[in-house]
Amino acid sequence: MKRCMSMCCVCAMALGLSFGVSTDTQAASSVKVIDGSQLTKDAESIGYNQKVARGEDLLTGYSKIVRMGPGQIYAGGTTIAERVVDRVGIGVMIERAKEEDTKWSFYDSWQKFNENADRASSKKYLDVEGDYYYRVRCIHSANDDMSSSFTDGVYIEEP
Description:
Blueprint: H1 2-29, E1 33-34, E2 37-40, E3 44-48, E4 58-69, E5 72-97, E6 105-127, E7 132-142, E8 145-150, E9 153-156
Parallel strand pairs: 2-9
Antiparallel strand pairs: 1-2, 3-4, 4-5, 5-6, 5-7, 7-8, 7-9
Signal peptide: 1-27
Keywords: Signal
């Protein structure tokens, strides 16, 4: 009897998992993507560096965007070097798009460099135009090593 109950529980869990997976797959296919970034209604998004050009000095980096309220965002990122290096930096770019767009448009940018350090971070709180999706794209550098990261697009309502 116990064995039969265990088998029924296992079958029910397997059925539930397969139903959950197929639902997630269907939902994911309807999400619009522009240049690798999903357009989301999430409150925040973090993107980690693409490990394409990582060398011996650059450890990692990330980009972050947070919806603070209608017409307001927090945007920034961090670069972390493998150890203290001569120069570590981050370039932060804000891009925006409407749901019907096929590419991101430039909105704002800034950069920060630290010398004889192992990290560089930069962030800003910005008032932005509502009814757009915004993403943060960062360029990370440690000496001559470079990489990049970007977030998903976060929808910002009109103020």
